[in-house]
Amino acid sequence: MAGQRTFTLICGLLAATLVHTTLMPPAVLNLGPEVIQEKLTQELKDHDAVSILHQLPLLNAMQGEPAGGIPLLGSLVNSILKYIVWLKVTSASILQVQVQPSTDGQELVVKIPLDMVAGFNTPLVKTIVEMHMETEVQATIQMKSGGSGLVLSHCSNSHGSLRISLLQKLSFLVNSLADKVMSLLMPALPKLVKSQLCPVIEASFNDMYADLLRLVKAPIPLGFNHLEFDVLSPAIKKNVVQLNLKAKLLDSKGKVTNWFNSSAASLTVPPLDSAPFSLTVRQDVVSSAVAALVPPEELAVLLDYVLPELARQLKASIKTISGQAADLLGPTQIVKVLIQDAPQLLLGQGNAKMAQLIVFEIFATNEVRRPFFTLGIEANSEAQFYTEGDLLLLNLNSISIDRIQLMNSGIGLFNPELLKDIITEILLAVLLPNENGKLRAGIPISITEALGFEAASLSLTKDALVITPASL
Prior knowledge:
The protein is α+β, with helices and mostly antiparallel strands. The chain folds into two domains: about 35-215, Bactericidal permeability-increasing protein, domain 1; about 290-445, Super Roll (Bactericidal permeability-increasing protein, domain 2), CATH 3.15.20.10. Helix content is about 35%, strand content about 35%. It has helices at about 1-20, 35-45, 50-55, 60-65, 70-80, 170-215, 285-295, 305, 310-320, 325-330, 420-440, 445-450; strands at about 25-30, 85-95, 100, 110-120, 125-145, 150-155, 165, 220, 225-235, 240-250, 255-260, 275-280, 300, 335-340, 345-350, 350-365, 375-390, 390-395, 400-410, 445, 455-460, 465-470. The strands form three sheets. Strands 1, 8, 9, 10, 11, 12, 21 and 22 form an eight-stranded antiparallel β-sheet that branches. InterPro entries: Bactericidal_perm-incr_a/b_dom, Bpifb1, Lipid-bd_serum_glycop_C, Lipid-bd_serum_glycop_N.
C-alpha cells in the first residue's frame, strides 16, 4: 500500500509539473496583415471577383426585393422598371484590402472596399444613365471549432458603407427615375453582394490558407537530407496570424531521423513590429539542420606534403615529449581528424558557436597502423550566419580547444596541453575549410520569395534564429 501511495504521489507531482510547463513549438511563423492583404488580393484576382461584380443581376434583384407580397409596392416597382431597358454594372474594381484586429484581438476583420459604376438605359433619354456605387464587404477570420485551422465567416456589407449617387444630372423626369432606381438598389445591392461575392471571397481565403500550408510544408534541402515543417496549431494575436509549427528531419530515403515537437525548451519569439512576416526557429532545429550539412566523417592528411610548415612545428612539439617518436615521423606522416558526433550549434543574443567532439591521431608514416597517440578534443568555433538572397549561409571563422584529453598513447604518458597550440593550427587549416566548404551550399529559405520578397534577413536570440524579409 505504501508503494502504491508513493506511485500516486509521484504521478500527481508530475501532472502538476506538466500543467505549469509551457510547451514551446519547434518553430513559429508569424504573418502580418500586409502578407494576408497581398495574398488575399491576389486570390480575389485569380477567382475573377471583379468579373462577378460585372455580372451582378441588378435588375432581377430590384424586381424581387421590395414587393414581398405587398401588391401596392409590387405595382410601384413595376411602374418604375417598365422604363428600364437594361441595367448592369459597367465598371468595377476592388480597392485596397484591409486586415485589422477585432476588438477582442481574437479574430481578424477583413475589409474589402468595392467601387462600381452601373448604368441603365431608358426610352426617356438617348444616353446611358450612370450611377456611382461604393460599398464595403466585411468578413471575419477566426479559428475553426477545435482550433484545427482558420476560416472566413460572417461575410456581409459593412453597416452604413453603401453609397449610390448619380454621376450626371439630366432632365427632371430622368433624375426622378434615377432616384427611384437608386432607392430600390439600396436594399438590393447588399443582398446581391452577400449572395454573389461572399462565396468567392470565402473560396479565395480558403485557397490562400491552403497555399500558405503548402508553403509551410515545402521540404527544405539539407545536403542529402531535408527538413520539413507542418502546422501544429494556428492562432490569431491582434493583427497577426501565428502558425505554430512542428518539424522533422528526413534522410535521403525519406526516413525520419529526428522529430521536433513541442517541448519545454525555451523559444523567444520577438514581436513582429513592422516586419511583414517572421519565421522563428528553435535552437535544436537549427542545430540539427547545420549538422545535416556537416555529418560525422574522418579526414586524413599527409601533413608534410600539404602543410609542411605545420608538419615541422608538430615534429618540434612532439620532440619535447619524445625525441625517439619525433625521429620516426616520415614524409608520409598522417594526421587523422575524426568527427564522431554531430556538431551542436549554441545560439546567443546576436552570436552563435558550433561545438564539436574531435578525435585526433598522428601516424608516423602512411604504412603504420597504430598511431603515436589518440586525443579527445572538445572544440568550438565562432559561427557567423548571413544571407544571400533567399539563401541562409553559415561560416565558421575560428576554432578553439576547450578541453583536450589523452585517450591512449604509444609513446608514454604526457600532458596533451603541450600540443594544444599546434593542434589548434592544424584544425584551423584542415577541419575548418572542409566544414565551410560543405556549409557553403546553404539552406534555402523558399518562404521569402514565395511570400513576395526578394531577400531574407536574420537575427539571433538566445534560443532561436529569426528570419524576416530584408529591407531593400
